[in-house]
UniProtKB/TrEMBL annotation:
It comes from the Bacteria. Pfam families: Aminotran_1_2. InterPro entries: Aminotransferase_I/II_large, Class-II_PLP-Dep_Aminotrans, PyrdxlP-dep_Trfase, PyrdxlP-dep_Trfase_major, PyrdxlP-dep_Trfase_small. Keywords: Lyase, Pyridoxal phosphate. SUPFAM superfamilies: PLP-dependent transferases. Belongs to the class-II pyridoxal-phosphate-dependent aminotransferase family. MalY/PatB cystathionine beta-lyase subfamily. Its EC number is 4.4.1.13. Residues 1-22 are annotated as: Disordered. Its cofactor is pyridoxal 5'-phosphate. Residues 125-401 form the Aminotransferase class I/classII large domain. This is cysteine-S-conjugate beta-lyase. It is an enzyme of class 4 (lyase).
């Protein structure tokens, strides 16, 4: 059975490699054929052998926004490949975007700092408010670097697991906050808003409850909001800094996920009004992180890439629906937590009886690469994360391979 699946998978690129048959200008996820995508050299396309269909790391199979292409090629044409200027263009573009898209006017440019990327920025904020040996609370299952980056800086991870629906759990948070702050130690909470991998978009009520609890236990909140522009129809992104009680928090924003710019790094750290003095103490060296091309590309995306983002969101919404249908049809045992945001689907595969690491089975027998749930921490075993920022054709083929891998 496994041999059949493998040989079948090896030839099945042919099923999807020819599209788009006659162009599909409206859907950025259908502009490149699978053959073209396989020529990419990024992690998504080079980590696994060429017969594997990759739906794992958070990269999109989209052509870039025209605004980004124009900004980067324009800079190259001028040899504009130096250091970033110390200006605030990126933060200003983010501020305008936040006002227009989210109706949020609390992103004060004077309370921002440019950082290399969201994870580096998150860690630098955590270092402003905690010391070595202090605790950082995280809500698993969660983006795996939340564990590694925190521990690398000699902070202790304390878990406040999500509930069974993949949402924040106030009692788990309270328990974790109490443990984290025991003995009067400084402690922080690294929030993920929207949440990777469950795609939960935290509501104003949920975030207000977080702020109340954080203040009750003296916990400082650092909110990773990298997925904020990727909220799908039906949900509404709420900036953590916009809820009452969050004045002493920090958040990290970036155009990197929404415009697929992980290769041109930059991000912005934003301090709430009561955290501005701490942000001002950020070591100068942290500001050396973002690249000039990152700043150029992210600024252009935020300023002029709105239509492209809308097209991507439409395509992702359609893929979210398609994935639900495909799973229902071919793998009904999988519990699909329909995400409210991000392009990541968190799939509970426990009813398939594939053990703790179903991703290993789908890879070996189906030649489809998904993210294993195990590194996402408590609640991750028996789960996989599927990246649906692909064409409908690739998505359909991926589910077909997954089904074939378990004999369907
Ligand atoms: C929640 C979250 N934070 C951070 C990152 C990485 O962002 P960066 O490359 O800007 O550090 C990702 C990437 O997928 C993510 O999902």
């Amino acid at each position: 059975m496994s041999d059949d699946c493998v040989s079948d998978a090896r030839t099945s690129d042919a099923r999807v490699s020819g599209f788009p048959a006659s162009g599909d200008g409206g859907n950025p996820l259908r502009r490149l054929s699978l053959g073209e995508l396989r020529r990419r050299t990024s992690a998504k396309w080079r980590t696994y052998p060429a017969d594997v269909l990759p739906l794992w790391v958070a990269e999109m199979d989209a052509m870039p926004a025209g605004a980004v292409t124009r900004a980067l090629t324009g800079a190259l044409a001028l040899g504009d490949t130096g250091y970033p200027s110390s200006g605030t263009a990126y933060a200003e573009a983010l501020d305008s975007f936040a006002r227009k898209r989210w109706g949020w006017d609390g992103l004060a440019v004077e309370r921002t700092a440019a950082v290399a990327d969201v994870m580096r920025g998150s860690v630098e904020m955590l270092k402003l408010v905690t010391g070595p040996g202090d605790a950082v609370v995280v809500s698993p299952p969660v983006y795996p670097p939340f564990f590694g980056f925190v521990e690398h800086e000699d902070r202790r991870v304390v878990e406040a697991p999500l509930d069974a629906d993949g949402r924040l759990c106030p009692s788990a948070l309270e328990d974790a906050f109490r443990r984290a702050a025991a003995g009067g130690r400084r402690a922080a909470y690294l929030l993920c808003n929207p949440h990777n991998p469950t795609g939960a978009v935290h509501t104003r009520a949920e975030l207000t409850a977080v702020a109340e609890l954080a203040n009750a236990y003296g916990i400082r909140v650092v909110s990773d909001e990298i997925h904020a522009p990727l909220v799908l129809p039906g949900a509404q992104y709420v900036p953590y800094l916009s809820v009452p009680g969050a004045e002493n928090a920090f958040c990290l924003l970036s155009a990197s996920k929404a415009w697929n710019l992980a290769g041109v790094k930059a991000a912005v750290a934003v301090a709430g009004p009561a955290a501005a003095n701490e942000l001002a103490r950020l070591p100068e060296i942290v500001g050396h992180g973002p690249s000039h091309f990152g700043v150029v590309a992210h600024t252009a995306a935020l300023r002029d890439g709105g239509d492209w983002l809308d097209a991507v969101l439409t395509a992702l919404d359609e893929n979210r629906r398609l994935l639900g249908e495909l799973l229902e049809q071919h793998l009904p045992e999988i519990r699909y937590m329909r995400p409210e945001g991000t392009y990541l689907a968190w799939l509970d595969c426990r009813a398939l009886g594939l053990g703790d690491d179903p991703a290993a089975v789908f890879l070996e027998r189906g030649r489809v690469a998904l993210s294993s749930g195990i590194p996402f921490g408590t609640g991750g075993a028996g789960h996989v994360r599927l990246n649906f920022a692909a064409s409908p054709e690739v998505l359909t083929e991926a589910v077909r391979r997954m089904a074939a891998a378990v004999g369907r």
